[in-house]
């Protein structure tokens, strides 16, 4: 089953008269199961990305190049490509191993990888809106079960048909792409405004937790259990997780069978009328002309571009220019994600702690998180242009940039819930569709820049571009972003609270939430 952990009491609830005891376990469990969701999702995605399916058993040919041939090749490369770093010393008589021609060509590998991102564009909006109108709980659980089944089917597709493999990858991307907007819908119903930074961060660091687990686990199990286990084990874990998910998780506090009266009323009062119990029609004109909404998109695109450069292109730079095979070391590859998770949780805790005590606003938290998470990586990328063959400094800059980038987990990611809780699934579906574009566009752009020109000068252009994008989107976010509910999110009370609404009823001129056996909370006056 997915990784388990305990969530301590949320800071600030003592001051509101809400005890931090087991009475608050439901919110913690909702957060925990969403964390586990992204753990399993990350493992499925990374399991299906194992060497882009080139680890399927192939015949190998061992060749030992002569020293003279190596020297001639090295001299020619030096003249053609300019200055390059000295190779890292390896053990003597290391065999030169190559794959046979049965391995997939680079173009096919690129198509296999890119189709996952393209299908996310398609499923994002529709899944978010469906989660709002139907059930975020069943959208999330169903999508992950479907993804686990497709992950197993990838094995047969990879062996027998490239076309079927691409189709399976499209379906896998569509299934996993449905989870992100649906989780935002769930958070809009469960996360009190002054606790969103921490809850959202705990949920979304699970993505990186899945990566951390995937690297060493795959490396450990493949020699003994075979490469197929890298697909079957995460898929089985996801199905076990889904069973508990469907039993214990609910779409809202009002529908939960396990929540206490104290916690239920606290969450309802904290969220207030910013989240309707029924899905209202989307105000498309107001949404698409909202600058805070576009600020999230711009920040998300810039963040995704820089992140893909750091995590995919920078290791390539280290391999080609510094002769460091960073990706082959599972521990070294996972360390930046550990730093990102730790720093992201720290920023989320500090943001909620200060905002709950009235020292800073939610808008300040979001803007400070983006400034920290984008400016520091931009500085690190520019610095990389000057260190060249200093391997230790390069690794340190990579680790620092990815770690500090974890601050954005309290920045643009929870911001969709801030500005429009009623439409958080729809808005984040659009945002997620757009922000996945750098997943295929950034590697394509980098490839065009450094194609057949693996020089420090060409790579410097890549780093400058990524740093510039970080800074531009940061400035845009600082100018236009907001952490406050937007006017177009508000729903007319006459529409929200019509007779027959199962979640509310009127008594003595007051609109009351669904009654508990012992107590209820007054909210707004009835209309009409």
From TrEMBL:
GO terms for cellular component: membrane. The chain crosses the membrane at residues 138-160, 166-190, 202-223, 229-249, 293-311, 331-355, 367-387, 393-413, 425-450, 462-483. One of its GO terms (biological process) is monoatomic anion transport. The keyword Transmembrane helix applies. Residues 1-21, 502-528 are annotated as: Disordered. One of its GO terms (molecular function) is transmembrane transporter activity. Pfam families: MFS_1. InterPro entries: MFS, MFS_dom, MFS_Na/Anion_cotransporter, MFS_trans_sf. It is a multi-pass membrane protein. It is found in: Membrane. Its main location: membrane. The keyword Transmembrane applies. Keywords: Membrane, Transmembrane, Transmembrane helix. Residues 502-522 have a biased composition (Basic and acidic residues). Residues 35-485 form the Major facilitator superfamily (MFS) profile domain. This is Major facilitator superfamily (MFS) profile domain-containing protein. It comes from Meganyctiphanes norvegica (Northern krill).
